[in-house]
Amino acid sequence: MKRFFNYALTLAFLIAGLGTTAAQQYCISLKKPGNPAVRYQLSEQQGQLRANSELPVTIVKKTEQKGDGQSLLTVTITAKERVYFNFGGMMNTAFATADCDFYLPGFWYHKNLRSPRQAPSFHTSKSWNFREDRLSSPLTGVFDSRSGSSLSVMRLLDAPKEALTTHQEGEVIVSGETSLGYLGFDNESGRAALTFGYPYMETPKRYIRKLTLTAPIQAFACLEKGQKKTVSWLITEGKAQDYGQFVANTWNLCMDQMNPQPIKPLYTADEMKAQLSNYFAKGYVDKYALKYHSGHGLRCDDCIPVDHVQLGFCGRVLLNGFNALEYGEQQGNATFVKMGQDIFSSWLENGFTARGYFKEDMHIRNGIPADQDCIHSIRQQSEAVYAVLHYLVYEKKQGRRHKEWEAKMRTLLNQMLLLQKADGSFPRKYRDDHTDVDASGGSTPSATSTLVMGYKYFGDKRYLAAAKRTISYLEENIISKSDYFSSTLDANCEDKEAAISAVTATYYMAMVTKKQERQHYIDLCQKATYFALSWYYLWDVPFAQGQMLGDLNFKSRGWSNVSVENNHIDVFVFELPHIVKWLGEEVKEPRFTQAYNVIYSSLNQLLPTKERLCGIGVPGFNPEVVQHTNWDYGRNGKGFYNDIFAPGWTVASLWEMYSPERTLNFLTKKIK
C-alpha cells in the first residue's frame, strides 16, 4: 500500500473550497519503461498542479461549484513529450475512522466486516483502492455517524474503452487506451480520506478470485507529445440520519447523474421463454429416484447434465419443474407436462425426511442421503415451498387437487413454527432435529414469504403471526442497521441476495395487510430496495477487443454484482423487478421505475441461441458467472465466463421476471 499510495505522511493539505470537512491532495507517478516509476507530490499554483522539479507534463486543475455542497473537479494532463503516467488524488476529511462507514456501490458496505480477511475488508487493511469496473456505480463515499456528515467522490465517465496489459501485478503499462480509473479510501492517519485517480490501480491487494488476495497493481497510461487527457470527478458533501439514508441519497445521486437508459431488447418475453425452455428439454435427468433438471456444476462448453442435485439456490428443481409443466400445457408440449409431473411425484415420494423437511443437496449417484446426514437451509426450504404452493394453486385452477402435497406443506410449515427462535429469527442452516449448524439470522427474510404464502393458501393465521415476527427481527437487526448479509449459501458476507430477500419479505407483508400496518411494510420495503438496487450497475463497463463480452457488445447496466466474496455480475432478480416497479408507483419514485426499465430490458443480452450462442454450448442454458472485471473463479477472467456454471437458477430467475403476474395473483386473488 505505502509504495503505491501513501499521501498521509508526505503531502501538504490543499484546501478545496468545499468547506472545512474536505481538503484535496494530489500526486503523479511517471514511469520510464524498464525503470521503476517516480512519484511526484503536487501543489496548486495558479490553477496548475506542479511538482518541486520540472515535469514532462502540464496539469491543469479546475474546480467548479455545482450547488450546495457539490463541486466538479476536472484535471487535464498535457504531455510535453511521450509519457507514461498515473495520477492520484485524495479528499481528506475531519472524520475519525472509528466513527465512519464506507460505501463503494456493489462492493463495499460499512467496513466489510461480514467478509473474511481473504476478501477486501477492514480485517485486512483500513485503506483500499479498486478498479472502477468492480463498482456498480463509479463512486466512493464515507459517512460519519458522529456528525451525520458524508462525502462522496464520483467519477464522471469517459466513453468506455479498455486495453489489455501484459502483466497483472506491479507497475504495468496499458497496451492501449483505457477509460478505467480507481476509487477508494485511506485511513492511515486515523482520519478518513477518499482516494481517486486515473488510470486504475488496486492496493494494498488485488482481489483476483474467490477468497484470494494477491499483489497490488498500478497501471500507467501513455500520452504522446501534445496529447491531453481530461478526467473529472463530482464531489458531494451531505447530511444523513444514518448510513441507510446516506446510501439511499447516494444511489439517488448516481441515478440522476448517470441516468441509465433501457436497452433495446433482443427478444420478447415469449421468445425468451421459447429459448430458455430448451433447458427443460436438454437438462432433464430421469434415471434416479429423484427427477430433476441438472442445474449445478455443468460445463459451459457442453452443458451435459451431472448428478449434483440442489433443490433450491442453484438448482431450483421444483420451480423449474413447475415452469416446465405450466409451459408445456400452454404450448401443448406433452413431454414437458409429463416431465413436470414426474419431478413433483418423485420428490413427493422420495424427497422428504421423516420430520417433513425437504432433502436439499446431494450427488444422487451415491443415493439419497439419510435423514441424519441432512443439513437444511432456511433459504432452500423456503424456495421449495414457494414452488410447491404455486404449483398447487395452478393445479387447482386446472381442476386437480393434491392432498398429499398439501399435507406435506402443512407439516413443513408447522415445523417452521417450531424452528423459529424467540426473537423471530430462523437459523441459516440446521439439522433435521432442529439443532443449529449456523444460527445466524441473516437468512430470516427467506422464511417470511413462505409463511405469508402458507397463510394465503391454508388460511392459518399462525403462519401470518410468525411472518410478522420475522419482520420484527428484520427491522431491528437488518434494515435499521443497514446490515444485509448471509443470504447466499456459498458465501457468508455482505451480499445482494440478502437485500433482495428483505425487499421481497416486506413486499409480501404489504400485500396481505392494510392501512398503517401496510404502510409500515412499504416504508421498510423502500429502505431495503435502495440496498438491493445499489448492487445493480448503472453504467457500462468497458471491455478490450478479444474479451468476448465486449465483442458481443454486452452492456453491463441492469446487471448486478453478487457479493463481496463473489465479484461478478449475474441475472439474479426473480421477483425483484416486479416489486421495484410496484414500489415506484406506490411511493411515486420515478427512479425506481427507471431502474426497473433498465433491468428488465438488459437481462436478455446473453441468452444463448443457435445463431448466437454467447459462449455457451447449448441454446437456452443461460450463463451464470459473467466476469466483467479483473476477477474469476479460476478460469478465463474478465470478458468471459468460468468453465463451470449453474444454469438451474439463471433459467428460473429469468422465467420469473417474464412471469410478472404470478406472485401478484397469488397474494391478491382468492385461492379456491
Query: What is the terminal separation in angstroms?
Result: 64 Å
Q: Quick check: average pLDDT?
A: 95
- Record field, number of beta strands: 33
Q: Stretches where pLDDT falls below 50 for ≥5 residues?
A: 1-21
Gyration radius from CA atoms, angstroms: 26 Å
**Class of secondary structure makeup:** alpha+beta
What portion of residues belong to β-strands? 15-25%
Give structural notes.
- The structure is a single chain.
- By secondary structure, the chain is an alpha+beta fold.
- The chain folds into 2 domains: 14-258, Beta-galactosidase, Chain A, domain 5 (Distorted Sandwich); 269-668, Glycosyltransferase (Alpha/alpha barrel).
- Helices cover 32% and strands 24% of the residues.
- Strands 1, 2, 3, 4, 7, 10, 13, 14, 15, 16 and 19 form an 11-stranded mixed beta sheet that branches.
- Helix 1 (243-258) packs across helix 10 (515-534) and helix 8 packs across helix 9.
- The chain is globular.
- It starts with 13 loop residues before the first strand and ends with a helix.
- The model is unreliable at 1-21 (pLDDT under 50).
Q: What secondary-structure arrangement, pairings included, does this model have?
A:
Blueprint: E1 14-15, E2 23-30, E3 38-45, E4 48-50, E5 57-67, E6 70-79, E7 83-96, E8 100-104, E9 108-110, E10 128-131, E11 139-144, E12 149-156, E13 170-173, E14 182-186, E15 191-198, E16 201-202, E17 206-209, E18 212-214, E19 217-223, E20 228-239, H1 243-258, H2 269-282, E21 284-285, E22 292-293, E23 298-299, E24 308-310, H3 317-331, H4 334-350, E25 361-363, E26 375-377, H5 378-397, H6 403-419, E27 429-431, E28 436-438, H7 444-458, H8 461-479, H9 496-511, H10 515-534, H11 548-551, E29 560-561, E30 569-570, H12 576-586, H13 590-602, E31 626-627, E32 640-641, E33 644-645, H14 647-657, H15 662-668
Parallel strand pairs: 13-19
Antiparallel strand pairs: 1-2, 2-3, 2-7, 3-4, 5-6, 6-20, 7-15, 7-19, 8-9, 8-11, 10-14, 11-12, 12-20, 14-15, 16-19, 17-18, 21-22, 23-33, 24-25, 26-27, 27-28, 29-30, 31-32
